[in-house]
Amino acid sequence: MPIYTKFLENQFGPFNLGPILVALKFGPVKVRSTKENRSNNVFFEAYKRRNNHQHIEVPAIFEDPNSLKQVPCPHIVDPATKYISLIIPAFNEQHRLPGALDETMNYLQQRTLKDSSFTYEVVIIDDGSTDETKRVAFEFVRKYTVDKVRVILLGRNHGKGEAIRKGMLHSRGELLLMLDADGATKVTDLEKLENQIHAVAKSEYHQGDSSNSDPRFRISDVPVAVFGSRAHLEEKALATRKWYRNFLMKGFHLVVLLASGPGILLPQCGFKMFTRAAARKLFSNVRLKRWCFDVELVFLCKRFKIPISEVSVNWSEIPGSKVNLLSIPNMLWELVLMSVGYRTGMWRISNST
User: How many angstroms separate the Cα of 326 from the Cα of each of 88, 217, 234, 323, 332?
Assistant: First the structure.
């Protein structure tokens, strides 16, 4: 029996499908024990999310705060109209967001001055903030126009994974970069991921031959993922980081190894780049909405055979992190859902995108 299967059974008891099948046909039934009840709750929740990757919802819109006109959202299945999209999830980030956005916009403008073909957009997803995050975000839309900065309002808090999924599905870039609102990773490091993604895409397209002269080659069409890594900084970080964050980190490493296999050291670093083709496959299927969506991304990359690379990035811990002790049960809950959903076949992976 695999280690993680034994762990799940020790924590939640054997996964008893009997009451689930009876409930689906005749309505809820009383289970025999607390462990069985927990087990059945997991199955019910996994069953509820079986079609979540289809994301049937009202059409998303952007609002131009200058003209108050609504701008239709593009979709990930549409052709790219920008070179790069930066996806920034934000929940109660009124204090950290302005500095990060100032640094990001300054960098992007400098790139545009050097290279007119460098086109970009920044998509901020307000994940149900209760502070002034929305106001701060719209100030940047007013300053830079809705063509360059856009805000998606989720209304209520769904989780970081859901916010990023929403931003990815409604972006316009050939390349899509997710990054945190705290500015913990310097935006200039996107060039490291950008160079790696181009190198891997060209290798995948022509098995190592130069594709620069091939007019059919488009970076957006080759599925590739590159993750920023701070593994080279971990020894120093362990000495300064709060104990529960070290505990979460080590536990997360173990979980990734058990759930997705070896190869990725630190998937929870919030600095990741995808080609449009990769994002279309991944974020049309991802179901986890909060802390463990990174693990599901790694799992889906392996299922789709999307090459993943890790590139070292500069990172510093910024005060105000949302990670705390309450994150532990939430992480375990999502990992159990993921295991049950995929192992039982309830979570089917769509290849139609």
Answer: 23, 46, 23, 8, 11
Domain limits for position 21: 3-48
Both tokens assigned to 236? 């120093």
Same domain? 136 vs 272 = yes
- Beta 225-229 vs 308-312: how paired, if at all? parallel
DSSP string, 136-161: HHHHHHHHH-TTTEEEEE-SS---HH
**Structural contact between residues 172 and 74, judged by C-beta atoms closer than 8 angstroms:** yes
Q: Give the model confidence (pLDDT) of 147-192 as tens digits.
A: 999 999 988 899 999 999 999 999 999 999 999 988 778 999 999 9
Rounded CA gap, 37 and 104, in Å? 48
11 and 122, same domain (yes or no)? no
Please tell me whether residues 178 and 214 are part of one structural domain: yes
Please report, for residues 189, 296, 316, the alpha-carbon distance to residue 310 in angstroms, rounded to integers and kept in the order given: 13, 17, 18
Residue 318: burial class (beta carbons within 10 Å; 0-12, 13-18, 19+)? middle
Residue 129 in tokens: 């903030």
Same domain, 197 and 256: yes
Examine the domain organization and report whether 174 and 194 are in the same domain.
yes
Residue 109 and residue 13 share a domain: no
For residues 95 and 111, give the distance between their C-alpha atoms in angstroms, rounded to a whole number: 26
Residue-wise pLDDT for 237-288, tens only, equals 444 455 556 666 666 666 666 655 555 555 566 799 999 999 999 999 999 9
Do 8 and 96 share a domain, yes or no? no
Whether 337 maps to a domain, the answer reads no
Looking at the structure, tell me whether residues 195 and 131 fall in a common domain: yes
Distance of CA 180 to the CA centre of its chain: 10
Q: Count other C-beta atoms under 10 Å from residue 322's C-beta.
A: 13
Q: What is the pTM of this model?
A: 0.79
